[in-house]
From TrEMBL:
Residues annotated for AMP binding in this entry: 53, 58, 79-81, 109-112, 116, 153, 164
Molecular function as annotated in GO: AMP kinase activity; ATP binding; CMP kinase activity; dAMP kinase activity; dCMP kinase activity; nucleoside diphosphate kinase activity; UMP kinase activity
Alphabetized NCBIfam families for the sequence: aden_kin_iso1
Protein name (Swiss-Prot/TrEMBL): Adenylate kinase isoenzyme 1
Region (NMPbind): 52-81
Spans through the membrane: none
Stretch list, region LID: 146-156
Organism of derivation: Steinernema carpocapsae
Length: 212
């Protein structure tokens, strides 16, 4: 893996975002655990803004910027891109959404490591709840290989899927324990049908939204 260049932090004015003080939900889970699928349904029911760190990164890659080229290599290796890159992309997208009147955020695929969560919460605001989709590796692989037939995603192949699982087990599993200890985790068994899982999701979100 070539060395990642030093990342220049952008000077982002977070004033409007902090002033809005809308609820923020983190959505975590292994690759293919259904984060994107469930987020779509959550958006339809609760009107929250869905920001996927993976989508934001893929958009940066697509833009053809030099940074995008670096990101491609990291993502194809199933590794994590530098924390600052993701956080700045998320901040910019959140500010854009706040300008348009966002009522709250689903931050999908974030935090991927404990430090990401700590930095986000220190620089922006604490999350209200962390939703974790708990799915066996066997199911994850099956779903991703099925999706690979049509997704066109450079990381939907057996070799990269194995690396993504390795990264999840090493870097992201501690995130789950971190928020569980804080009493802020909704652990959801996510092997049933999309609608069955969504019913459990809503039971957690209804409580969290009502307790605003
Ligand atoms: P990212 O885009 O976040 O990928 P991921 O975590 O691997 O997750 P996926 O998007 O593949 O799956 P998903 O959980 O959203 O599941 P989906 O709903 O699509 O990240 C890609 C890369 O970007 C990372 O590897 C990393 O390099 C980088 N990156 C991203 N965030 C980062 C961060 N914060 N820091 C650093 N680097 C970062 O469902 C999958 C499939 O299953 C679909 O076909 C779906 O139809 C199907 N499905 C869903 N639910 C069900 C169900 N209940 N039953 C049957 N099938 C189902």
């Amino acid at each position: 893996m070539p060395p990642v260049p030093v990342v220049e932090r952008k000077n982002i004015d977070l004033g409007p975002l902090k002033a809005a003080n809308v609820p923020i939900f983190f959505i975590v889970g292994g690759p293919g655990s259904g984060k994107g699928t469930q987020c779509e349904k959550i958006v339809a029911k609760y009107g929250l803004t869905h920001l996927s760190s993976g989508d934001l990164l893929r958009a940066e890659v697509k833009s053809g910027s030099p940074r995008g080229t670096q990101l491609t290599k990291i993502m194809e290796a199933g590794e994590l891109v530098p924390l600052e890159v993701v956080l700045d992309l998320i901040k910019e997208a959140m500010l854009e959404a706040i300008k348009k009147g966002s009522k709250g955020f689903l931050i999908d695929g974030y935090p991927r490591e404990v430090k990401q969560g700590e930095q986000f919460e220190a620089e922006i605001q604490p999350s209200k709840l962390v939703v974790y989709f708990d799915v066996s590796e066997e199911t994850l692989v099956k779903r991703l290989l099925h999706r690979a037939k049509t997704s066109g995603r450079a990381d939907d192949n057996m070799e990269t899927i194995k690396k993504r699982l390795h990264t999840f087990n090493n870097a992201t599993a501690p995130v789950v324990l971190h928020y569980e200890k804080k009493g802020k985790l909704a652990r959801i068994k996510a092997e049933g049908s999309v609608d069955e899982i969504f019913a459990v999701v809503t039971s957690h979100l209804d409580k969290a939204v009502a307790g605003k």
